[in-house]
Amino acid sequence: MWYWVLQFLCAVLVRICFRYRVSGTENIPSRTNFIVVANHSSFLDAVLVSVAVRRKIRWICHRFLYRIWWLGLFLRLTGTLTAGISTRTAVDLLERNQNIGIFPEGRCSRNGSLQEFRRGTAVLAMKTGRPVLPCAVRGAFEALPVRARVPKLGQLIRVEIGKPVYLLKEFEETIQDTVLQEGTKKIRNVLKEMLHGSEHG
Q1: How far apart are CA 199 and CA 194, in angstroms?
Q2: Which of 90, 92, 112, 177 has the most beta carbons within 10 angstroms of its beta carbon?
Q3: pLDDT tens digits, 107-153
Q4: 179: which residues sit within 8 A by CB, 6+ positions away?
Q5: Rg of the Cα atoms in the chain
Q6: What span, in angstroms and rounded, lies between the C-alpha atoms of 68 and 116?
Q7: Cα–Cα distance between 101 and 47 in angstroms, integer?
Q8: Cα 91 vs. chain centroid, distance in angstroms?
Q9: Positive or negative, the Cα torsion across 58, 127, 30, 89?
Q10: Is the pTM above the cut of 0.85?
Q11: CA gap 199, 186 in Å, rounded
Q12: What is d(CA 94, CA 92) in angstroms, rounded to the nearest whole number?
């Protein structure tokens, strides 16, 4: 229940504080759960994407965020997962029809540009066969970069939800590195193209 209460409050706040725009909601899968991935350049990103997708998302967050008492309370109430959870745990959650949210870059970009992706998203997608839902966030870096303490109100922020990306399900216990690299590259290229298109859209 707390998730939906806090999501509603966050939806109200982002629309009051920013010029918030969402596109591509028709791409959200309706018959299966999914893995949400997004670029990461601001601490606002998870909230912005959650409000756009309007489904319960179990975000994987860094441990240090829980040390801030009010933020830690918010994260626990919304059912976030601590970074470093086992792949088996994440796979189990996906197989129980829960949605997982991941920032494949691992941490916030310091300059707003897309960083290299880690392989975790590809592992989960290949282990479960669940689609990856790419979300391109633009304007969040300008609104609240990593080192800023106060957001820039009135900033235009766009969240574009792309078409699901499917990776071939692997049934072997160990997935070959080359296969993981290809899957990771595919996901990153899709998000990169979305961000590049948004710049000219």
Answers
A1: 9
A2: 90
A3: 999 999 999 999 999 999 999 999 999 999 999 999 999 889 899 99
A4: 126, 170
A5: 16
A6: 28
A7: 11
A8: 17
A9: negative
A10: yes
A11: 20
A12: 5
- Domains in the chain: boundaries: 2-199
Yes or no: say if 137 and 49 are a contact pair by the CB < 8 Å rule.
yes
**The two structure tokens encoding residue 20:** 């918030």
Per-residue pLDDT tens digits for 59-87: 998 777 777 767 778 888 888 888 777 78
Tokens representing 139?
Answer: 């304007």
SS3 readout for 18-83: CEEEEECHHHCCCCCCCEEEECCCCCCHHHHHHHHHCCCEEEEECHHHHHCHHHHHHHHHCCCEEC
- Residue whose tokens read 């009135």: 154
Paired sense of beta strands 35-38 and 99-102, if any? parallel
